[in-house]
What does this fold into?
Amino acid sequence: MVSSMTNGKAGSNEMARIRASCPECGDVELTIDQVRVVVCSSDNQGSYSFQCPSCRLAITKAAQPRVIDVLLASGVALTFWSMPAELDEAHDGPPICHDDLLVFHFDLERGDCMTELTGAGVQMQGSRSSS
It folds into this structure.
């Protein structure tokens, strides 16, 4: 739950207060500087986060556009982020499995592994063949 409120009379210069809910402490009051709004520019999903002033727990909650609008109208700063470009890359071959991780682990323990990895076209011992 998020609601915006102001202290004092209408038109006063007092800073807006935000009421949010901490899972440990219940409702808490925050200043606009204690709340952060982030929106993903790739899919327009938003969330807000804050640190509970009582228990210091870091809290992040998904938010509907209406909640984002209320927070922004109250003066909370907005930060945009975007999905990593790697999500749009084509992926060939099967996904990595536990055996692949074990082989990689043992290859890293070998003393000459980094020399092999930095060499051109060298494939790690036990890794899958691309053919």
